[in-house]
Write a structure and sequence with these properties.
Length: about 525
């Protein structure tokens, strides 16, 4: 199915945290053991490189060569010990499992996870690697290699915890606060044993519930969702999102098809819809009142002036949403070069939640259409607001269950990452692909908000054109046969009749006629 003739806006709720790691295998080794299964021996503070002794009876090439080898090793030992004693060289960061520095690294990792979407969780580890890299010349080639290996071994528990936390949050998005609290407990106690990964944290639940989940999915496939309450739909979505990443073959297809049916049936939560309508109504009134001049003059504005208009619209929407201190950045690009998995072009706008960044494409017909641009901006900024809502579920203190936005926020949290449908998945019905894509919780809300904004300037523009047409006809009655007036009347009639013209295009035609009349004797 071809999408409607309009720009496809993609919010990219699957923004990556920067980690590209395989999912943990539930049948993997026990928590706290490395991949090869050998026991982990955390390096102690007193460990130092040992100088190897020659086996008894081994030949020596020359006394000079042995002396040089021994000298290099003693130098390395001296460097390590001098650093630990706080000698005259620049102090090397101390890396010790359960020690202050490693706990500090994990603490910085937690800060990145606290952001939503997650920040660069690798940054704290990379900072420690950079600190060691800066001492490469001082340590020498041999010393640097040994120190590098030591650092790798000492940071491995943190890296494994990061992977486990990342997967747990993706598979069980509503347990994000629980996972973060467990990370904090590990940082405080210094116990870096992996107890967080989905294979450990939820293994019992999964084993007990999977057959119930499968039964629920099969029932939805056969009977649909008519008998399911929104709360029950949410329960099933929770289980589908947890299971989908781990499934393959026909079972995965069944879970995916059930998710599509749920999304097609699940409207906005009534309490959220009522609250959100009030906010959108105030937003539209302000946009209409404060951006009328920009709409009228859009065709003549420079790129900088257009960007300023978009930033004004963003500020209005964020202010009415109560997130003025959490605004996305807007940048203009000449080619988005973005496509959905089934090949739909992302022609006008794209939101990257991991960077809180909104890109607007200036190379395309949509950029000349103010209605399309304001639709896209409000659509993408609505995604930004959705991520803010998700963040409130896991803030300290978290959003209360009595908040009218709470239930819908949980649906947004489930919809992003593994619960998001691009439209190109194998389990998506081709004939319904765009419907499924646009009616999943995050897109349903964003398309609603953007669509409303798209139409706010058009009625006034058409009314002004109609009033001008009436005026022209009266003038022609006073000047029968005036070819110039007849031409202007024809243009105004076609302007009003053309349903595809944007607000700014109508205003441009109106202004052209007014310019003609100003020159008329």
């Amino acid at each position: 199915m071809q999408p409607p003739q309009k720009s496809i806006r993609r919010n990219s709720p699957n923004g990556s945290s920067g980690l590209s790691q395989p999912k943990p295998d539930p049948t993997d080794t026990k928590p706290g053991t490395p991949v090869d299964g050998s026991p982990v021996r955390p390096p102690s503070h007193g460990d130092v490189p040992q100088i190897p002794e020659s086996p008894p009876g081994s030949p020596r090439d020359s006394a000079e060569e042995n002396s040089e080898e021994l000298s290099d090793q003693l130098l390395l030992l001296s460097l390590v010990n001098r650093t630990r004693r706080g000698g005259d060289s620049a102090p090397r960061p101390q890396f010790e499992v359960g020690g202050a520095t490693l706990v500090k690294v994990l603490g910085e990792v937690i800060k990145q996870f606290e952001k939503f979407p997650a920040g660069d969780v690798m940054k704290p580890l990379n900072d420690e690697k950079a600190a060691l890299e800066s001492r490469k010349d001082e340590l020498g080639e041999v010393g640097y290699r040994i120190a590098q290996e030591r650092l790798k071994q000492e940071l491995e528990p943190v890296a494994k915890l990061m992977l486990s936390a990342t997967n747990a949050i993706k598979w069980y998005p509503l347990h994000r606060r629980r996972v973060l609290d467990m990370l904090q407990e590990a940082a405080t106690s210094g116990d870096l044993t992996d107890k967080i990964g989905p294979a450990y944290l939820f293994a019992t639940d999964d084993m007990l519930q999977f057959f119930d989940d499968l039964e629920a999915v099969e029932k939805i496939e056969k009977e649909g969702t008519a008998d399911l309450s929104p709360a029950r739909m949410q329960e099933v979505i929770i289980r589908i999102v947890a299971n989908l990443p781990k499934l393959t073959g026909q079972t995965a297809e069944s879970f995916g098809r059930a998710l599509c049916k749920l999304y097609l049936s699940l409207d906005l939560d009534p309490r959220f819809a009522e609250h959100d309508l009030e906010v959108r109504t105030r937003t539209l009134a302000r946009l209409k009142g404060e951006l009328k001049d920009e709409c009228r003059k859009w065709s003549t504005l420079s790129s900088d002036e257009r960007l300023a208009a978009l930033e004004k619209a963003r500020d209005i929407q964020c202010a009415e949403r109560g997130i003025s201190d959490w605004k996305p950045e807007i940048v203009l690009v000449d080619d988005l070069n973005q496509y959905t998995p089934n090949g739909w072009p992302v022609t006008l706008a794209h939101f990257a939640p991991e960077f809180s960044l909104m890109k607007i494409n200036t190379d395309g017909p949509g950029w000349q259409d103010f209605d399309e641009v304001i639709d896209s901006l409000v659509h993408e900024n609505t995604h930004h607001y959705q991520y803010w809502l998700i963040n409130q579920l896991f803030a300290l203190p978290p959003m209360g269950t009595d908040d009218p936005r709470y239930f819908q926020a949980t649906l947004f949290a489930l919809n992003q990452k593994h619960g998001y449908i691009e439209g190109g998945e194998s389990y998506v019905d081709r004939k319904l692909a765009f419907d499924i894509y646009s009616l999943q919780p995050m897109e349903r809300h964003a398309f609603l908000a953007g669509g409303e904004a798209r139409g706010i300037f058009l009625p006034d523009a058409k009314q002004e054109a109609a009033e001008l047409l009436t005026r022209l006809r009266k003038m022609l009655e006073e000047r029968p046969g005036h070819s110039g007036l007849e031409l202007q009347i024809t243009m105004m009639y076609e302007t009003i009749a053309n349903s595809k013209l944007s607000s700014n295009a109508i205003y441009r035609n109106v202004d052209d006629v007014l310019a003609f009349l100003s020159q008329l004797d």
